[in-house]
Amino acid sequence: MIVVINYAVGNVKSVCNAFEHIGCEVKLSRNASDIEHSSGLVLPGVAAFGYAMNALGDLADLLKKVVRQGKPILGICVGYQLLFEQSCEHGDNKGLGFISGKVIKLPDGLTIPHMGWNSVELPQNMELFKGIGENKHFYFAHSYYSQTTDSQAKFAYTDYGFKLPAAVQKSNVYGTQFHPEKSGPSGLAVLKNFQKICENY
Amino acid sequence: MLAKRIIPCLDVKDNRVVKGVNFLNLRDAGDPVELGSRYSDEGADELVFLDITATIRSRKTIIDMVEKVAENVFIPFTVGGGIRGIEDFDVLLKSGAEKVSVNTAAVDNPNLLSQAANKFGNQCVVLAIDARRSKSRTGHWQVCVKAGTEPTDIDVVEWAVKAEKLGAGEILLTSMDADGTKAGYDNQLNKAVSSAVNIPVIASGGAGKLEHLYDAIAEGGADAVLMASITHFEECGIHQMKEYLAAHGIPMNL
Q: I need a labelling partner for A1 at 20 to 30 A (CA). Which of A46, B186, B225, B235 fits?
């Protein structure tokens, strides 16, 4: 069973709905035992970075532990950003640090938030994108983005006036800056791939 | 490249869609969930649901509808109409809406925009502006509230700029003059607002032909086009709109 971490306000329900729609058993929870016994974890995107880390509280240490043990985790939107070391959204805040790099504001001169459907080049060596095609549109809604220095991580990119990281994979750590649960059939296919990853764990 | 968006708007009253629909093959043409799914399948990039009764009693019905839509539709959708305070944002987002649009309550209390943005992120805060051309000041528009029935002295462009600073993540801009005319969007208005802010602008009001969609994007600088009544486009569905725009060089998610 996949556990969607229930850690804050906002629209966490849509992620659960999308997993249920593809026939995946899913539970919204912040219970330590649920997290430890899950086949995989989803960190949904809610609120601002600092607010989200704060809301995770003690769960952060538990997440670090189970992810170190190899449990798959998928971060979505702000959940994706939390996978990095730090963010400068509303002051400096530390993230979970699974991936080296930081989260910074989108450059001036662009329409911010980056909101809507943007096309993502899908590297065929990233498990999340297996069998989906080479290029698909996904729904983005964010004002900050990840800048990375991690040579062990694989990235997929979109074009927003510059090469913007759209998804990441580093061993059992996965993340999408876009919202797969709001990206129609292509997004559901990404969640289906994550379901398979968890089944094999 | 970021695609421009096509956004059908569904006016909802007593859990029925009361405007904007004319599909022949539907079992129940007035069911918001069924219509939302249908539009999504047809290629809509987003949906907007407007609670046009917006009474305290209707709130519960809308929340039930939002929950059902979120269980069946996997594209983003905005809910608006009768938003009074931060607790309306909370319950609608928790029920599965991606964004909440607010007009009158934000005019009455602009800090609502900051409160909502700080708590939920500005990407889910949509400021709806009903704009009417000013009779006394050429080239200006005045903000109307209470479903367009009540004009204010507030200048639309100034309000848009202020709202962005406060935390609005998007502007849903309806021209009261163009609405219902099918004569095209008010692209002077769209341009005036889209060039004054850095957040996305959704053009609304006046769509009747495919060219109008193109003009709103190319001339008006809109990031998205909303149509309150798809019946205006009886011969062509959403997919054809997107193909038309793509053929004219507009980036679309086909």
A: A46
Contact A141 B90 (CB under 8 A): no
Say if A46 is an interface residue toward chain B (CB within 8 Å).
Answer: yes
Alpha-carbon gap, residue A16 to A5, rounded angstroms:
10
Contact B121 A110 (CB under 8 A): no
Instruction: Give pLDDT tens digits for A161-185.
Output: 999 999 999 999 999 999 999 999 9
- Residue of chain A whose Cα is closest to the Cα of B167: A113
**Of residues A45, A83, A53, the one with CA closest to residue A178:** A45
pTM over 0.90: yes
Helix A59-68 and helix A49-56: axis angle, to 10°? 80
Of all residues in chain B, the one with the smallest CA distance to A111 is B198
The CB-side HSE value for B212 (13 A sphere, CA atoms) comes to 21
- pLDDT tens digits, residue range B121-143? 899 999 999 999 999 999 999 99
Total tally of structural domains belonging to chain A = 1
Q: What is the CATH number of the domain that holds A151?
A: 3.40.50.880
**Yes or no, beta carbons of B74 and A47 under 8 Å apart:** no
Residue carrying structure tokens 């061993």: A171
Q: Is the pLDDT of residue B232 over 70?
A: no
Residues in A closer than 8 angstroms to B118, CB to CB, are 48
- Side chain identity, residue A153: A
Q: Place B230 in a pLDDT band, splitting at 50, 70 and 90.
A: low
- Residue B175 reports pLDDT greater than 60: yes
- What tens digit of pLDDT does each residue of A16-31 get? 999 999 999 999 999 9
Question: Is residue B17 within a helix (H) or strand (E), and if so which, with residue range?
Answer: strand B16-19
Question: Is B11 among the residues known to form the active site?
Answer: yes
Q: Do B94 and A117 touch (CB under 8 A)?
A: no
**What does the buried/exposed string (b/e) look like for A63-74 if buried means 16 or more CB atoms within 10 Å of the residue's CB?**
beebbeeebbbb
Q: Which residues constitute the domain of residue A67?
A: 2-199
The whole-number average pLDDT for the span B4-16 is: 90
- Total count of residues recorded for chain A: 201
Beta bridge partners of A13: none
Q: Is A143 on the interface with B (CB under 8 A)?
A: yes
